Amino acid sequence: MSSVTEQTAVVRELSIAARPETVWEFFVDPEKAVRWMGIDATLDPRPGGVYRVTVMSGNVGSGTFVELDPPRRLVFTWGWEQGGDDKAMAVAPGSSTIEVELEPEGDGTFLRFTHRDLPSVEAVASHGHGWDHYLGRLVTVAEGRDPGRDTWLDSRK
Predict the structure, then answer these.
(1) Residues 82-109: pLDDT tens digits?
(2) Are 13 and 113 a contacting pair, CB within 8 Å?
(3) Which segments of 12-143 does DSSP mark as H helices, in order?
(4) Which domains does the chain have, with CATH numbers?
(5) Which of 83, 84, 78, 9 is nearest to 50 (CA)?
(6) What's the rounded Cα separation, in Å, for the pair 135 and 70?
(7) Under a CB-based contact definition with an 8 Å cutoff, are residues 132 and 101 in contact?
(8) What is the pLDDT of residue 86?
(9) C-alpha–C-alpha distance, residues 3 and 26, integer Å
(10) Which of 63, 70, 84, 151 could be joined to 94 by an S-S link, Cβ 3.0–4.6 Å?
(11) Which parts of the chain fold into alpha helices (H)?
(12) Is 45 helix (H, G, I), strand (E, B) or coil?
């Protein structure tokens, strides 16, 4: 996994040994989404539809789906329902944007993940750390392996 961080964006590029159609489902199917991130998800994958994931108790990411071009491109807004005073978490629901681009790469997928419009350097660093954790779990589950229990559910309350 390589990474590039800009002041207000997190960008990750990775290869996954699964077809784009398979990877796509892990972003739009609530049952599949929680296999790699979160404990609950409400997803209505259509422009204007709800995107809401309880990442862990007390941390709910929410926004709306903006653009869907299965299985190539997905855009949705993101933010925390209860960000508090922590600069790293002070991202209002729907105030930042996540773009997922999936390109065929042999029998697998090249994924370019961009989380932009983050409000501070602290938010970029925190979200970059979080996405590294969860995108690693996505690779595992999309490739048909068991990512195991998310250890962050026990250590980050």
Answers:
(1) 854 566 678 999 999 999 999 999 999 9
(2) yes
(3) 20-28, 30-33, 121-142
(4) 2-151 (3.30.530.20)
(5) 78
(6) 19
(7) no
(8) 64
(9) 21
(10) 63
(11) 20-28, 30-33, 121-142, 152-155
(12) coil
